Write a sequence for this structure.
């Protein structure tokens, strides 16, 4: 009996740290609501009153990356959420939020959707939330065809030099109707880019000098990642609301500045970005960053 007890004690000592580690963590699920102009988003919906012309628009794509998600303690300290590595929506500290379902106006999108970031944190009380809209530099400049999901969607990628589209919101507007691309894509593979028409909001890093478009840069002059902080957030009760129409309130989505990309694609010297970028909390073209209006709490 003594030998048996000693063996059990030894096993308990060996197992103790891993069991304690598991027991010291709690799961967390942070829910996001994709909206447009204050309404729940749908690929089949037409939204009115958008921008300076009160345009009526259809949304043909609606996806974004978030990263560096952390919960705040009462003393203001941040505890990073250890994301579940699900092989589909989350990789390392990055998650893809996908609100389009490949139906209606979103025929060039994907059928699967995702509105929740899942992971775990040490057990404790948390009062707030911080996150970044964007992909961290270390993951932003590589070959997406070799990357794990959700970083393997080429429709969310420009090139190695500038990296991923942190936000991809494509519109077909009254003045800028979008033509549909000839082929679609599926989650986990290539996604064809829409034809160059319509009006788009694509956020990503810019001014990233490199030897070529297929080589990673050492740095980017404009990182264009949006740091978001909510001092009060309860994951069990609150939802993070995303509404791109808010940042388009002072933009004319029915026209496009001559000799520039269709809409605001973050690159310097684009008049279509002058009101949009500051509304996302980013300085642009000499305009200071304003309060970010893209994300809110409900």
């Amino acid at each position: 009996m003594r030998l048996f007890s000693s063996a059990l004690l030894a096993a308990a000592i060996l197992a103790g740290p891993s069991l304690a580690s598991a027991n010291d963590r709690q799961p967390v699920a942070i829910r996001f609501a994709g909206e447009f102009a204050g309404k729940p988003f749908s690929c089949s919906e037409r939204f009115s009153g958008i921008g300076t012309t009160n345009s009526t628009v259809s949304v043909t794509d609606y996806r974004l990356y978030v990263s560096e998600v952390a919960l705040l303690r009462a003393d203001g300290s941040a505890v990073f959420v250890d994301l579940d590595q699900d092989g589909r929506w989350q990789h390392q500290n990055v998650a893809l939020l996908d609100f389009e379902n490949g139906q209606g106006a979103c025929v060039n999108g994907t059928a699967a959707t995702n509105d929740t970031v899942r992971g775990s944190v040490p057990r404790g009380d948390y009062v707030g939330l911080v996150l970044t809209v964007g992909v961290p530099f270390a993951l932003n400049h590589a070959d997406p065809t070799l990357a794990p999901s959700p970083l393997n969607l080429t429709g969310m990628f420009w090139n190695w030099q500038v990296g991923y589209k942190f936000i991809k919101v494509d519109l077909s507007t009254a003045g800028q109707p979008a033509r549909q691309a000839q082929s679609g894509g599926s989650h986990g593979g290539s996604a064809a880019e829409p034809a160059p028409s319509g009006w788009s909001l694509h956020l990503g890093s810019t001014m990233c000098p490199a030897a070529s478009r297929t080589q990673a840069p050492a740095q980017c002059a404009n990182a264009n990642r949006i740091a978001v902080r909510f001092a009060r957030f309860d994951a069990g009760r609150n939802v993070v609301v995303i509404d791109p129409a808010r940042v388009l309130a002072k933009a004319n989505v029915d026209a496009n500045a001559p000799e520039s990309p269709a809409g605001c694609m973050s690159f310097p010297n684009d008049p279509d970005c002058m009101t949009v970028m500051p509304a996302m909390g980013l300085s642009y073209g000499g305009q200071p960053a304003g309060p970010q209006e893209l994300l809110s709490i409900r």
